[in-house]
Each structure stands twice: as C-alpha cells, then as structure tokens.
C-alpha cells in the first residue's frame, strides 16, 4: 500500500512515512493509492467481536509493514485501555429507527480520542525505533487539541504545540489544554479563528526550512492515521445493527470533514452504508456546497457548537480528489482558487459528491431546541454538536436505521447544555478538579513568523 497526494506531485509514501510526514510537500493530503475492501463474510465475522479486534481487521490492510501484527494489536489494546466504556463506542437507541453512537468515552470526552490515542501509540513506537525527536504543531477548535495533549503529554521525544482560537473554545476545552503541567505541552491562544490556526499549520508545513529544522509533524486530520482510526466505529456500529445483511445510514456533525470522510472510506471498503449525511451548524459551507456546487467562504461565526466553527474544511480536499477522478492538478487548481475566496465544482465532480453525501444544517435555535427535546423526550443530554446531528438526522429518517454520531460529552459544553436543558452534566470524577487547576498558556497574534519564532525558542530550551 502506497500513499499519494491529493495534488498529485509529491513523493508517494509508506503508511509510516505518511503518518510522520503530515502534509504532502505539494500542499496536498495523503490518501491510500487504493482502498482495500472487506468481503461480506469478513464484515459478518465482526459480530460479537471486541472493538479492538474489529479495529485490527479494519486497519491492518492500510498499514503495510509498519508494524507486525502482534505489535499493532498491542498498540490498539493500549490505545483503548483507558476508555470508560467496555464497548468503547456504545450505541443507544433513541427511536424505532434512530440511534446515537456515543464516541465520548475516551480520556478527553470527544471522538478525537479514538484516533489520537492510537496515533500517540503509533508515533511512540515509530520514534523509539528511529530515535528521532519531533515537534507536533496542531490547530484546534477545542477537541483535537485536548486529545492531542492528552496523548502526547510528558513524552521525551515530542514537543506538542496546540493553537486554538482565543475566546472561541469552551472553558472545559480550554482548561483541558492549559492545565497539563508537563513541559513538552504548549497551549497557544491565537487572536483569530480556527481557520487561521489551521492555515498557520499548513503554512508551517509548506515552509520546508522550518519543517526540517523543527522536525515538524501533524496530528490534525491532515494525518491519514487520524482518518483511518475513525473508520473503525462505522463498522462496529453498522455490524451491531445488522450489517452486512442490511444497510445503515449515518449522520455526522461536520466541521473539518474528517469524521464523515472516515465513513466514506468505510463505505468504499464494502460496508453497506445507505446515506452519509453531513450536519453543519450555521457555519454551513459544506451544506451550501452540496446544495449548489459552489464552495464559497464566508466569515466564521461563533456558535454554541464551537468545534464546528470552520469554513475551510480540510478533508473536503480528499473527497474532491475522488470526485475529480483522482486528478491532482484539478484539485490543486481548486485549492488555489480557494485562496481567492472559493471555487465552482465541475458538473461531473459535483454529481459524484451529491451521490456520496447528503446534508443539512441547524441554526442556533434549532440546536438548542434539539438539546431540550432529546432531554425531555428521551432523557438524553446531548452536546451541542450532537444536537446539530440529531436535528439534521430527523429530516433523513426512513426505513434504513440511522446512526447519529455523538461526538462529544455534554459536560464539555456546560453553558449551552444547561441553557437548553436546565441541567448541568457533571464532569467525570477524574476531572472534577479541572476548574481548580492552574492554567498555563501563551497568547499570540495571528502572525506566522512570530509563532514560528516562539516554537523555535521553546524547543531550543
Ligand atoms: C465535538 C465535535 N463534533 C464534530 C466535529 C466535526 O468533526 P470533523 O472536523 O471531523 O468534521 C468536531 C471537530 O472536528 C468536534 O470536535
Ligand atoms: N473540531 C476540530 C477541528 C480540527 O479537526 P481535525 O480533525 O482536523 O483535527 C477540533 O476540535 O479541533
């Protein structure tokens, strides 16, 4: 298995190289040259298996000889051992044909832990072989950052710098990033929005001298390993609802398009997925794009689902690559146009995307109303991102079972949840003193070279 860039002119890499490299040198994202498929009987065999066993079956074909089978099984076991639910990703029935897939039982209470805990294990194994020291720089709208810090805190061979938009993450998210005391953790509060933070990460990767000097690595969904680990729970959920013998649909609260792209890969691998529904908040660029074929940037608006306050949706490039028949030059052209504000997708590519994805959006009022409704009618306290998901899913319910991804724990967003439900979701006991811990962060301007200088200074010490 080789990994190729969505812009078509970077070297092809092995899984290990793609994982440690981050952004491709032509500015594109790495994807597998072919997506391996699983047979119906391999999928049927997953019934009754542990999450870890399914994870091994799903991911093994992608990793080549990066790890032996035994080693990979051990890394998977370690990755999920700290999860607070034996099923790892349990399903909860909401209605006769609507289910929630709870993805918030990991250490930082969001779906990001599924990939980040495994990436942490895989990075450590690869780095201990090579003896290398790396600098991880990540952008976050709240959850990726806390999951990355949790996965890499205290590691000798890694410094981790996380840029988050100042004042635009919840207090719990911020404290998860600013309270770890390990000296290899650096939380940077950027005067900007998530798109500014993500653009800075990509600019750092495109600055080859800086990239070499600090040994830059990425753990955003730029990194194929992140997407891959998220493919697994589509299989566990679908199989427990009857796949491969019946089709299942998924609604996915979407921002950077990584999670839903993982669902798209599951479908490519042979999982019988009927609909993949993109659910956006009022930062609805993906919904508008799927409705009109025009990807047009507007300003990022703060919402009560802050982790999805994104307009430049990184992984959409991976979907475009397939939509354009894997023509890297066409994708590169569209990404150049995006710098000027947007692009029009060609008719054929647009048709492909419409065949693959459905979409909907939830306003702020609709999001709050969904939290209220699901609490009163079903006794389920939803985080605002999940509430966006269930609101959109309701418009797509039919005969096929619908699974909405519950992407974060309601306790991460206490203000919005309490305002809508009247109830405060408690943090788990291990985090009960989060508000008492002292914070450590650096406020920075949205200035690439100043941030690069700060990173160089910090790692020199
Ligand atoms: C809680 C939560 N829900 C949904 C999303 C959207 O996921 P994605 O960016 O993979 O589309 C994010 C952030 O990405 C998130 O943190
Ligand atoms: N919502 C995310 C945004 C970054 O997404 P990623 O999947 O590319 O890491 C966050 O919480 O940071």
TrEMBL record:
Entry EC no(s): 4.2.3.1
Pfam families: PALP (PF00291), THR4_C (PF24857), Thr_synth_N (PF14821)
Keyword Amino-acid biosynthesis part of the UniProt annotation: yes
GO molecular function: pyridoxal phosphate binding; threonine synthase activity
Known cofactor(s): pyridoxal 5'-phosphate
Modified residues (N6-(pyridoxal phosphate)lysine): 112
Superkingdom field: Bacteria
Pathway: Amino-acid biosynthesis; L-threonine biosynthesis; L-threonine from L-aspartate: step 5/5
Full protein name: Threonine synthase
UniProt lineage: Bacteria, Pseudomonadati, Pseudomonadota, Alphaproteobacteria, Rhodobacterales
């Amino acid at each position: 298995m080789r990994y190729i860039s969505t812009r078509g002119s970077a070297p092809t890499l092995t899984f290990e190289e793609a994982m440690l490299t981050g952004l491709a040198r032509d500015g594109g994202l790495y994807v597998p040259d072919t997506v391996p498929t699983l047979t119906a009987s391999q999928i049927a065999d997953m019934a009754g298996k542990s999450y870890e066993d399914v994870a091994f079956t799903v991911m093994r074909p992608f990793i080549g000889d990066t790890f032996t089978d035994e080693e990979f099984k051990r890394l998977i076991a370690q990755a999920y051992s700290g999860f607070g639910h034996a099923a790892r990703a349990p399903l909860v029935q909401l209605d006769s044909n609507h289910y929630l897939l709870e993805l918030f039982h990991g250490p930082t209470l969001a779906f990001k832990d599924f990939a980040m805990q495994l990436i942490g294990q895989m990075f450590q194994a690869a780095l201990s072989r090579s003896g290398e020291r790396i600098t991880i720089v990540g952008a976050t709208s709240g959850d990726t950052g806390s999951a990355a810090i949790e996965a890499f805190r205290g590691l000798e061979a890694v410094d981790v710098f996380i840029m988050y938009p100042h004042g635009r993450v919840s207090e719990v998210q911020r404290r998860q990033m600013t309270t770890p005391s390990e000296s290899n953790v650096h939380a940077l509060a950027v005067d900007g929005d998530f798109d500014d933070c993500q653009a800075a990460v990509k600019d750092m990767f495109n600055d080859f001298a800086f990239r070499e000097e600090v040994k830059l690595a990425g753990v955003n969904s730029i990194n194929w390993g992140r997407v891959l680990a998220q493919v697994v729970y589509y299989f566990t959920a679908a199989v427990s609802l009857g796949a491969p013998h019946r089709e299942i649909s998924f609604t996915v609260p979407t921002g950077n398009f990584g999670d839903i792209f993982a669902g798209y890969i599951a479908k490519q691998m042979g999982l019988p997925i009927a609909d993949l529904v993109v659910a956006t908040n009022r930062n609805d660029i993906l919904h508008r794009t799927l409705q009109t074929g025009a990807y047009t940037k507007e300003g990022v608006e703060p919402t009560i689902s802050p982790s999805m306050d994104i307009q430049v949706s990184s992984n959409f490039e991976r979907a475009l690559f397939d939509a354009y028949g894997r023509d890297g030059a066409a994708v590169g052209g569209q990404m150049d146009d995006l710098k000027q504000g947007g692009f029009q997708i060609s008719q054929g590519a647009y048709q492909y995307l419409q065949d693959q994805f459905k979409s909907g959006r939830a306003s702020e009022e609709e999001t709050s109303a969904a939290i209220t409704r699901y609490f009163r009618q079903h006794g389920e306290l939803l985080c605002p991102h999940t509430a966006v998901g269930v609101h959109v899913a309701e418009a797509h319910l039919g005969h096929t079972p619908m699974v909405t991804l519950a992407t974060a724990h309601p306790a991460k967003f206490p203000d919005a949840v309490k305002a809508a439900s009247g109830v405060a979701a408690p943090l788990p006991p291990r985090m009960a003193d989060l508000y008492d811990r002292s914070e450590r962060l650096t406020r920075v301007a949205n200035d690439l070279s100043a941030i690069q200088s700060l990173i160089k200074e910090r790692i020199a010490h």
